[in-house]
Protein backbone atom coordinates (compact mmCIF):
# COMPACT_ATOMS: atom_id res chain seq x y z
CA UNK A 1 0.00 0.00 0.00
CA UNK A 2 1.33 3.41 -0.97
CA UNK A 3 1.66 5.90 1.88
CA UNK A 4 -0.14 9.24 1.67
CA UNK A 5 3.23 10.97 1.38
CA UNK A 6 4.37 8.92 -1.62
CA UNK A 7 0.93 9.14 -3.22
CA UNK A 8 1.12 12.97 -3.03
CA UNK A 9 4.51 12.91 -4.77
CA UNK A 10 3.36 10.50 -7.46
CA UNK A 11 0.19 12.46 -8.15
CA UNK A 12 2.15 15.74 -8.27
CA UNK A 13 4.10 14.32 -11.20
CA UNK A 14 1.00 12.84 -12.82
CA UNK A 15 -1.16 15.97 -12.46
CA UNK A 16 1.38 18.72 -13.19
CA UNK A 17 3.19 17.17 -16.11
CA UNK A 18 0.82 14.72 -17.77
CA UNK A 19 -2.83 15.25 -16.87
CA UNK A 20 -2.69 18.92 -17.76
CA UNK A 21 -6.42 19.10 -18.52
CA UNK A 22 -7.38 17.64 -15.12
CA UNK A 23 -9.39 14.78 -16.60
CA UNK A 24 -8.05 12.23 -14.09
CA UNK A 25 -6.31 10.19 -16.76
CA UNK A 26 -3.63 10.51 -19.42
CA UNK A 27 -3.52 9.20 -22.94
CA UNK A 28 -1.40 9.56 -26.05
CA UNK A 29 -2.73 13.08 -26.71
CA UNK A 30 -1.35 14.26 -23.37
CA UNK A 31 2.12 13.12 -24.42
CA UNK A 32 1.77 14.81 -27.81
CA UNK A 33 0.76 18.00 -25.99
CA UNK A 34 3.75 17.67 -23.65
CA UNK A 35 6.08 17.40 -26.67
CA UNK A 36 4.52 20.53 -28.13
CA UNK A 37 4.89 22.45 -24.85
CA UNK A 38 8.51 21.37 -24.38
CA UNK A 39 9.33 22.27 -27.97
CA UNK A 40 7.77 25.69 -27.49
CA UNK A 41 9.92 26.20 -24.36
CA UNK A 42 13.07 25.35 -26.34
CA UNK A 43 12.04 27.27 -29.48
CA UNK A 44 11.70 24.20 -31.68
CA UNK A 45 9.07 24.18 -34.41
CA UNK A 46 7.17 21.27 -35.91
CA UNK A 47 9.45 19.77 -38.51
CA UNK A 48 12.62 20.59 -36.54
CA UNK A 49 14.76 17.55 -35.72
CA UNK A 50 14.63 18.30 -31.97
CA UNK A 51 10.83 18.57 -32.08
CA UNK A 52 10.61 15.19 -33.78
CA UNK A 53 13.12 13.65 -31.36
CA UNK A 54 11.14 14.99 -28.38
CA UNK A 55 7.85 13.72 -29.78
CA UNK A 56 9.34 10.31 -30.63
CA UNK A 57 10.82 9.93 -27.14
CA UNK A 58 7.62 10.93 -25.38
CA UNK A 59 5.55 8.59 -27.54
CA UNK A 60 7.91 5.73 -26.64
CA UNK A 61 7.46 6.67 -22.98
CA UNK A 62 3.69 6.67 -23.50
CA UNK A 63 3.73 3.27 -25.22
CA UNK A 64 5.78 1.80 -22.38
CA UNK A 65 3.67 3.44 -19.70
CA UNK A 66 0.43 2.27 -21.28
CA UNK A 67 1.67 -1.30 -21.70
CA UNK A 68 2.56 -1.51 -17.99
CA UNK A 69 0.07 0.76 -16.22
CA UNK A 70 -3.16 0.60 -18.26
CA UNK A 71 -4.62 -2.24 -16.20
CA UNK A 72 -8.06 -2.20 -17.86
CA UNK A 73 -6.61 -1.65 -21.38
CA UNK A 74 -8.88 1.32 -22.14
CA UNK A 75 -6.15 3.44 -23.76
CA UNK A 76 -5.81 5.70 -20.72
CA UNK A 77 -3.81 5.62 -17.51
CA UNK A 78 -5.68 6.89 -14.46
CA UNK A 79 -4.09 8.40 -11.39
CA UNK A 80 -4.73 5.16 -9.51
CA UNK A 81 -3.12 3.08 -12.27
CA UNK A 82 -0.15 5.48 -12.25
CA UNK A 83 0.31 5.13 -8.50
CA UNK A 84 0.03 1.33 -8.65
CA UNK A 85 2.62 1.14 -11.41
CA UNK A 86 5.14 3.26 -9.48
CA UNK A 87 4.46 1.24 -6.33
CA UNK A 88 5.52 -1.85 -8.26
CA UNK A 89 8.66 0.03 -9.38
CA UNK A 90 9.45 0.96 -5.77
CA UNK A 91 9.66 -2.70 -4.83
CA UNK A 92 12.58 -3.21 -7.23
CA UNK A 93 13.87 0.04 -8.79
CA UNK A 94 16.93 -1.68 -10.21
CA UNK A 95 14.56 -3.56 -12.55
CA UNK A 96 13.11 -0.46 -14.16
CA UNK A 97 11.39 -0.79 -17.51
CA UNK A 98 13.22 0.65 -20.52
CA UNK A 99 10.63 3.42 -20.84
CA UNK A 100 11.20 4.46 -17.20
CA UNK A 101 14.93 4.77 -17.87
CA UNK A 102 14.20 6.67 -21.11
CA UNK A 103 11.92 9.03 -19.21
CA UNK A 104 14.60 9.64 -16.56
CA UNK A 105 17.18 10.46 -19.25
CA UNK A 106 14.68 12.62 -21.14
CA UNK A 107 13.95 14.73 -18.04
CA UNK A 108 17.65 15.17 -17.33
CA UNK A 109 18.36 16.23 -20.91
CA UNK A 110 15.38 18.58 -20.87
CA UNK A 111 16.69 20.27 -17.75
CA UNK A 112 20.31 20.35 -18.97
CA UNK A 113 19.64 23.13 -21.48
CA UNK A 114 23.35 23.95 -21.80
CA UNK A 115 24.10 20.30 -22.59
CA UNK A 116 27.11 20.33 -20.25
CA UNK A 117 26.20 17.13 -18.41
CA UNK A 118 24.85 18.85 -15.32
CA UNK A 119 21.73 20.72 -14.26
CA UNK A 120 21.98 24.07 -12.50
CA UNK A 121 19.32 25.99 -10.62
CA UNK A 122 18.39 28.28 -13.52
CA UNK A 123 18.01 25.40 -15.99
CA UNK A 124 15.95 23.43 -13.48
CA UNK A 125 13.66 26.26 -12.39
CA UNK A 126 13.05 27.46 -15.96
CA UNK A 127 11.68 24.05 -16.96
CA UNK A 128 9.36 23.83 -13.97
CA UNK A 129 8.17 27.41 -14.35
CA UNK A 130 7.24 26.56 -17.96
CA UNK A 131 4.94 23.85 -16.55
CA UNK A 132 3.21 26.38 -14.29
CA UNK A 133 5.12 25.78 -11.06
CA UNK A 134 6.32 28.73 -9.03
CA UNK A 135 9.88 29.54 -10.12
CA UNK A 136 10.99 30.52 -6.60
CA UNK A 137 9.67 27.21 -5.26
CA UNK A 138 11.51 25.38 -8.03
CA UNK A 139 14.74 27.17 -7.03
CA UNK A 140 14.14 26.10 -3.41
CA UNK A 141 13.48 22.54 -4.60
CA UNK A 142 16.72 22.58 -6.57
CA UNK A 143 18.69 23.69 -3.51
CA UNK A 144 17.26 20.81 -1.49
CA UNK A 145 17.82 18.34 -4.33
CA UNK A 146 21.41 19.51 -4.97
CA UNK A 147 22.19 19.64 -1.24
CA UNK A 148 23.55 23.16 -1.64
CA UNK A 149 25.80 22.36 -4.61
CA UNK A 150 25.76 24.45 -7.78
CA UNK A 151 24.69 21.58 -10.04
CA UNK A 152 23.56 17.98 -10.28
CA UNK A 153 25.32 15.52 -12.60
CA UNK A 154 23.68 12.72 -14.59
CA UNK A 155 24.83 9.96 -12.18
CA UNK A 156 23.55 11.98 -9.22
CA UNK A 157 20.26 12.63 -11.00
CA UNK A 158 19.72 8.91 -11.60
CA UNK A 159 20.03 8.23 -7.88
CA UNK A 160 17.74 11.14 -7.01
CA UNK A 161 15.22 9.80 -9.55
CA UNK A 162 15.07 6.41 -7.87
CA UNK A 163 14.79 8.06 -4.48
CA UNK A 164 11.78 10.12 -5.59
CA UNK A 165 9.75 7.03 -6.32
CA UNK A 166 10.76 4.92 -3.34
CA UNK A 167 11.55 7.04 -0.29
CA UNK A 168 9.27 7.67 2.65
CA UNK A 169 11.67 10.26 4.11
CA UNK A 170 10.14 13.72 3.50
CA UNK A 171 13.62 15.29 3.68
CA UNK A 172 15.30 13.01 1.12
CA UNK A 173 16.86 15.10 -1.68
CA UNK A 174 15.21 13.00 -4.39
CA UNK A 175 11.77 14.26 -3.37
CA UNK A 176 12.50 17.58 -5.03
CA UNK A 177 13.46 16.53 -8.56
CA UNK A 178 10.11 17.64 -10.00
CA UNK A 179 10.26 21.24 -8.83
CA UNK A 180 8.23 21.11 -5.64
CA UNK A 181 9.91 22.04 -2.35
CA UNK A 182 7.46 20.29 0.02
CA UNK A 183 4.66 17.72 0.07
TrEMBL record:
Which species is the source of this protein? Papilio xuthus (Asian swallowtail butterfly)
Record bears the keyword Protein transport? no
- Which PROSITE patterns does the record match to this protein? EF_HAND_1 (PS00018), EF_HAND_2 (PS50222)
**In this entry, which stretches build a coiled coil?**
none
Q: Which residue numbers delimit the EF-hand domain?
A: 5-41, 99-134
Protein's name in the database:
Calexcitin-2
**SUPFAM superfamilies to which the protein is assigned, alphabetical:** EF-hand
Q: Which domain of life is it from?
A: Eukaryota
Which keywords does this Swiss-Prot/TrEMBL entry list?
A: Calcium
Q: Name one GO molecular function term.
A: calcium ion binding
UniProt KW Cell division keyword: no
> Sorted alphabetically, which InterPro entries does this protein's record hold?
EF-hand-dom_pair, EF_Hand_1_Ca_BS, EF_hand_dom
